[in-house]
Specification:
alpha+beta; 5 helices; Arc Repressor Mutant, subunit A; transcription; 3-stranded antiparallel β-sheet; 103 residues; ArsR-like_HTH
């Protein structure tokens, strides 16, 4: 069976890059634990709280939060001196729940 691809549109290329970022972000066990925890609590939590639950150092946490944020899997908001992280359900729905619809 041969699959013919339509001309490479920059919109499709950008979507493919976003898909790759999402799946790369999810390919790490620590980041999966972070996603799982955020899904369980259904609220914004501090980076320190997540670090304690997942048992990672502050610097390791910063790296993992950055990867998740860049993949748009999480939303970070700053309140005073604390950063709160929550899931971005829009991205999860678009690239995971409706994965085949977006191809």
């Amino acid at each position: 069976m041969t699959v013919e691809l339509m001309g490479g549109s920059s919109s499709t290329d950008m979507e493919d890059e976003a898909r790759v970022k999402v799946f790369k972000a999810l390919s790490d066990p620590i980041r999966l634990q972070i996603i799982r925890y955020l899904n369980q609590v259904h609220r914004g939590v501090t980076c320190g709280e997540i670090g304690g639950v997942v048992d990672i150092s502050k610097s390791a946490g910063s790296y993992h939060f950055k990867v998740l944020r860049e993949a748009r899997l999480t939303i970070t908001r700053k309140e005073s001196r604390e950063k709160y992280v929550s899931l971005n359900y829009e991205t999860l729905d678009k690239y995971l729940t409706r994965f085949f619809d977006t191809l």
